[in-house]
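Thread: "does anyone have the structure for this chain?"

Original post by V.I.:
We have the sequence but no experimental structure in hand. Need at least a predicted one for the grant figures.
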Amino acid sequence: ATVNPNPNAPTVTPATSCGPGSVTLGAVCGTGSTANWYAAATGGSSIATGANYTTVSLSASTTYYVSCKTDLGCESPRVAVKATVIAKITDGGKIQSNEDICPGKTPALITSVTPASGGDASLAIEYIWLQTNSLTNGVCQFETAIWYPL
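Reply from O.Q.:
Generated one for you, tokens below.
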């Protein structure tokens, strides 16, 4: 009798979606074996084979499992790979209001903040500050600071 070894476990690539949608997960198996995708850590039938698996449209983060399997039926342990769905920000919030100033002037202190809502509270929200410059006949027409959530 010949005892064939199980292949090594796959190297996996998780994926993230901003809002509901499908994501493509990845798995790399060694030579002579193929990635087999599962919905459960143990048991059940394979839901797909191949290096990439595109999920159905997801509205919540979901963990899938993948193993490497040889033509002889030898199979590695399953490895978890996460399809992460991050809820979209529904309102970017507000930092006071836009402020118009001329060059060399100091803007007012930020005194009123309405926080952003929606999204994943465990993730930081990053803001980009933009400004515009405009002169008409050499006279300052205002610089306006506008912010947008990323």
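V.I.: this helps a lot. The radius of gyration is 26 Å.
O.Q.: and The chain is about 0% helix and 50% strand.
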